[in-house]
Design goal:
Strand order of the largest sheet: 3-5-6-7-8-9-10-11
Mean pLDDT: 96
Radius of gyration: 19 Å
Number of domains: 1
CATH superfamily: Metal-dependent hydrolases
Number of strands: 12
CATH class: Alpha Beta
Number of helices: 12
Order of helices and strands: EEEEHEHEHHEHEHEHEHEEHHHH
Structural class: alpha/beta
Distance between the termini: 9 Å
Helix content: 40-55%
Largest sheet: 8 strands, parallel
Strand content: 15-25%
Length: 332
C-alpha cells in the first residue's frame, strides 16, 4: 500500500480519510519576532490549534495538509505536537513562497540554481527537516506572485526536479488566481507528473473557463479559499465547482479553505494607507472570523450545502474530499 509522510511518520494512503489539502496551523511574517509585545505564546498556539483540529476530526475529517512555505513560520515540531494531541494526520511541506513585493523567497535562495533547490527539497522529503529530529515533509509547496520572476521560475523548476526524485505532490500558490498555466508549463517542461500537481487558489477566477483549461491538462485544481469572502464570494466558488463537476472534472477538484488556526502578528502584515485604516479596523472582527476564528468544519456545514443545491451529489463530495486528495498525495 502506498504511503504518505506525515509529521508523525508514514501513513497508509487508505487511512487518510477525508482530507483538507490547503490549510494552516500558524503563519508568521519575517520581522514580527522583533515586536516587543506578543499576543500568543507557543503553548497558546498549540492549545488553540489542537482544539480546532480536534473539532475538524469530530466533523469527519482525518488529514490536514499544511503547505506553509519554509519562510512563513513553518514549524514541524509544533505541528507534531498538535497532531499528537488532536488525533489528526498533519502533512507539512518543503518549498519556498513567492518573490512578491520583495518578501517571501529568501534572498540567498533567489541566487540558487534549480538543481540546488531540488537537492534541498529532496533532503527535507527523504532525510528530514534540519533541527526537527527527523520530521520529514510530505509535499512540495510552489508559488508565483503578481508576476512570475526569474527566481520563481528557478524555484518552480527545482520543485519539478524534486518531485521527479521523490514522487510526492506539488501544491501551489497563485496570486489572484493568475499564472496557473505558467506553473503547469514549467512543471511539464521539467518532467513533473502533472497528475500529482494541485494548482491552487483558483477562487478569484470570474469565469470557470481558465480553471477548466488547467484541469484539462491533467492537474488538480484548487477551490481552496472557501469562506474567504473578503477575496471572492462563496456563491461564485460554488458555481465554479458545480460547473466542473457537471462537465466531468469531479476527479480533479480539491476543496479547502486556506484557513489559519493562529496568526500571531499583533499588527497587520500588509501596508494599509492611512485613509483606509479606520475602515480596516472596523472590519477586523469579520476578517479574523473568515481567516482564523470560524471552525474548519464550515466547508461541510456551510459550503457543501451550496454545492448540493447546485446538483453536486454526496458521491461527488466523497470523491472531492477523499479520493482526490489520496490520489494527489499518494498517487493511488
Amino acid at each position: 500500500m502506498a504511503q504518505v509522510m506525515t509529521v508523525l511518520g508514514p501513513v497508509d494512503a487508505a487511512d487518510l480519510g477525508r482530507t483538507l489539502v490547503h490549510e494552516h496551523i500558524v503563519i508568521t511574517w519575517p520581522g514580527e519576532e522583533l515586536e516587543r509585545t506578543a499576543r500568543w505564546t507557543r503553548a497558546d498556539v498549540v492549545a488553540r490549534a489542537t482544539d480546532k483540529l480536534a473539532e475538524l476530526r469530530d466533523g469527519g475529517f482525518r488529514t490536514f495538509v499544511d503547505p506553509c512555505p519554509i519562510e512563513l513560520g513553518r514549524d514541524p515540531e509544533l505541528y507534531a505536537e498538535v497532531s499528537q494531541a488532536s488525533g489528526m494526520h498533519v502533512v507539512c511541506a518543503t518549498g519556498f513562497y513567492t518573490q512578491h513585493e520583495g518578501w517571501g523567497l529568501p534572498f540567498y535562495w533567489r541566487a540558487r540554481d534549480p538543481e540546488e533547490i531540488a537537492e534541498h527539497y529532496a533532503a527535507e522529503l527523504t532525510e528530514g527537516i534540519a533541527g526537527t529530529g527527523g520530521i520529514r515533509a510530505g509535499v512540495i509547496k510552489a508559488a508565483t506572485g503578481a508576476e512570475v520572476s526569474d527566481a520563481e521560475r528557478r524555484v518552480l523548476t527545482g520543485a519539478a526536479l524534486a518531485q521527479r526524485a521523490t514522487d510526492v505532490a506539488i501544491i501551489t500558490h497563485t496570486e489572484h488566481s493568475r499564472y496557473g498555466d505558467t506553473q503547469q508549463d514549467i512543471f511539464a517542461e521539467h518532467g513533473a507528473d502533472l497528475g500529482r500537481v494541485l494548482i491552487g487558489h483558483q477562487d478569484e477566477q470570474t469565469d470557470v473557463a481558465p480553471i477548466r483549461a488547467l484541469a484539462a491538462q491533467g492537474t488538480f485544481v484548487g477551490i481552496d479559499r472557501v469562506g474567504l469572502e473578503i477575496i471572492a464570494p462563496d456563491e461564485r466558488r460554488a458555481d465554479h465547482v458545480a460547473a466542473l463537476v457537471h462537465e466531468g472534472f469531479t476527479g480533479q477538484v480539491c476543496l479547502s479553505q486556506d484557513h489559519i488556526c493562529v496568526t500571531t502578528a499583533p499588527r497587520p502584515a500588509y501596508w494599509v494607507p492611512p485613509e483606509y485604516r479606520a475602515a480596516a479596523a472596523a472590519r477586523r472582527a469579520d476578517i479574523e472570523w473568515q481567516t482564523s476564528d470560524r471552525p474548519y468544519t464550515y466547508i461541510t456545514t456551510g459550503f457543501a450545502p451550496m454545492l448540493t443545491a447546485r446538483g453536486v451529489t454526496e458521491a461527488d463530495l466523497e470523491t472531492i474530499f477523499v479520493d482526490n486528495p489520496r490520489r494527489l498525495l499518494a498517487g493511488v
